[in-house]
Amino acid sequence: MLYQSRVNPCIILKRFAFSGPRQRIYSFCVASWLILDLGSITFETQIHILADSDEQDVVQQVVEFYGDFVAIDPYHFTLNMPSNHIYMIPAVVDPPSLQHFCDRVVDGIAALFLALKQRPVIRYQRTSDVAKRIAQEASKLMYQQESGLFDFRRMEVSPLLLVIDRRDDPLTPLLNQWTYQAMVHELIGIQDNKVDLKSIAKSSKDQQEVVLSSEQDSFYKANMYENFGDIGMNIKKLVDDFQQIAKSNQNIQTIEDMAKFVDNYPEYRKMHGNVSKHVTLVTEMSKIVEERKLMLVSQTEQELACNGGQVAAFEAVTNLLNNESISDIDRLRLVMLYALRYEKESPVQLMQLFNKLASRSAKYKTGLVQFLLKQAGVDKRTGDLYGNRDLLNIARNMARGLKGVENVYTQHQPLLVQTMESIIKGRLRDVDYPFVGNHFQQGRPQEVIIFIVGGTTYEESRAVALQNATTSGIRFILGGSVVLNSRRFLKDLEEGQRISRSSAPMI
């Protein structure tokens, strides 16, 4: 389990500030805790400077923490990289930016394994140049440059670090979400477990920014992976419980009643804040769902993601493109989802959708869909995104089609689920996910860290948490360069397309 903490805190000790590519965080126990980013794995010189300057002998202890990552959930971390689109750019286009991107990812991965006190066996997605580069540089750091730093007690089976590319599953970040945590991020946005509500008219002054953390909010912890319909009923129960407590607190008649109320006031105030927060979030999301007709849109999205039928899919997408209530971003996502599914099967119909999108959307052009196919089309992907090749997935989809599903809006499962199943069963193919160097694994690892270059989603985080709740005997940890929603994924695509255009040779 990851310990949740903020990354790269500001330097409090002003006289000494160090920076560099390899970041460590140190705490100095003086009158209170001071946090100083020394910024280098080779730190002896800086420690000597601090010791020589401590003329009053106030430093009692030096404690080392590796925190070059953000633990946002117990099994989910991110690096919060601002220039996330760089992973899409070929190395020849902007070598310095790509090197900086890879260095930052390697630093974050190294910090994680130092925090876990482990050195992993490393594998990567064969079809991704950037995943291969990061895997090789991480291996070089851990096994050569800083091998002594990573020389921890050997485990019977080494943990596994698997580095994969977001472009192997472009489907997941394009879909609307219908479970609580993922839906909040998709429709409103979550940054480091905080939600900005300043733009919401009905949010009170003390609710301009709220925290969504499973460590601090028991209701959120119990409901973060529940679907939207259940959340509404559970919030109603939360409101009813609070009203009963509030009613009892209003009946203060004696000194003893008052003392009891004062003792319980912090918990009462906390419960009041939680009720207000969750009611505000669900109310705002319900408003967005209605305005954008997302239930209608999402049903077609899920059909495109999970079921076949090109003729019916073309008709459904065409009807939604013609619907005046559908927003431009939803039109774009629908065409992208259709293109990813049927790029090889129906080029004529795809061109018709391109023309329709160009005529209906003032903001988004069809070139972005073509750039997505260039980056993440079927010829670029390793995984079996639609279950077309895996017999087990075909059987599962047939069974699901016969029996129906409990919730049509949550049919989709990320490709990551297949990857975890393959690891559990020892069937992750070496030809698709080779080992770095001459390392290999004998037996099943007990711990697997999957890092997605290009970003994770909360749908994938949920899949990891649910998998860890089973009895497979393997603990998975998910990490990525950012946490994506559809807007961030599309923004990265736009930036990648812009750089690719500007660097294209003149004819």
TrEMBL record:
<dbReference type="InterPro" id="IPR043127">
    <property type="entry name" value="Sec-1-like_dom3a"/>
</dbReference>
<comment type="similarity">
    <text>Belongs to the STXBP/unc-18/SEC1 family.</text>
</comment>
<dbReference type="InterPro" id="IPR001619">
    <property type="entry name" value="Sec1-like"/>
</dbReference>
<dbReference type="InterPro" id="IPR027482">
    <property type="entry name" value="Sec1-like_dom2"/>
</dbReference>
<dbReference type="GO" id="GO:0016192">
    <property type="term" value="P:vesicle-mediated transport"/>
</dbReference>
<dbReference type="Pfam" id="PF00995">
    <property type="entry name" value="Sec1"/>
</dbReference>
<protein>
    <submittedName>
        <fullName>Vacuolar protein sorting-associated protein 45 homolog isoform X2</fullName>
    </submittedName>
</protein>
<dbReference type="InterPro" id="IPR036045">
    <property type="entry name" value="Sec1-like_sf"/>
</dbReference>
